[in-house]
């Protein structure tokens, strides 16, 4: 799947939050293992991005760009994915409700902060 919905990943996870750039797969996938839902966009409208940022402003959510993903908006959880064309699609809320810290989560409740910072590209504790 693109973006990946599981598989090999870095020992560090991406800090959950909203980012205006692409998050490396190896960190984002580890966040999915902890129960995060990852919203990615590619050429989505500014209105859709604003709506999605509001949804992504909760615990265990990631949001980033993902050029070349084949859909304007993709929601990904461990082992699950939803592709939609606009942020008004009612399936978005259903997906988040079902999979955010959902039963598919291999490591429920594990941290979603304090590791890889997508803004700086550094791991916690690195200068």
TrEMBL record:
Protein's organism: Dermacoccus abyssi
Protein name as catalogued: DUF3105 domain-containing protein
Domain of life: Bacteria
Classification via Pfam families: DUF3105 (PF11303)
InterPro entries for the chain: DUF3105
């Amino acid at each position: 799947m693109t973006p990946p919905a599981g598989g090999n990943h870095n020992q560090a996870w991406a800090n959950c939050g909203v980012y205006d750039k692409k998050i490396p797969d190896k960190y984002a996938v580890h966040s999915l293992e902890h129960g995060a839902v990852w919203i990615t966009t590619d050429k989505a409208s500014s209105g859709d991005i604003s709506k999605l940022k509001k949804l992504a402003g909760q615990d265990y959510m990631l949001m980033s760009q993902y050029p070349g993903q084949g859909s304007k908006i993709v929601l990904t959880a461990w082992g699950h994915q939803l592709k939609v064309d606009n942020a008004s699609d009612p399936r978005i809320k259903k997906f988040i409700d079902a999979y955010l810290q959902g039963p598919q989560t291999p490591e429920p409740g594990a941290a979603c902060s304090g590791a890889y910072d997508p803004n700086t590209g550094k791991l916690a504790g690195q200068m």
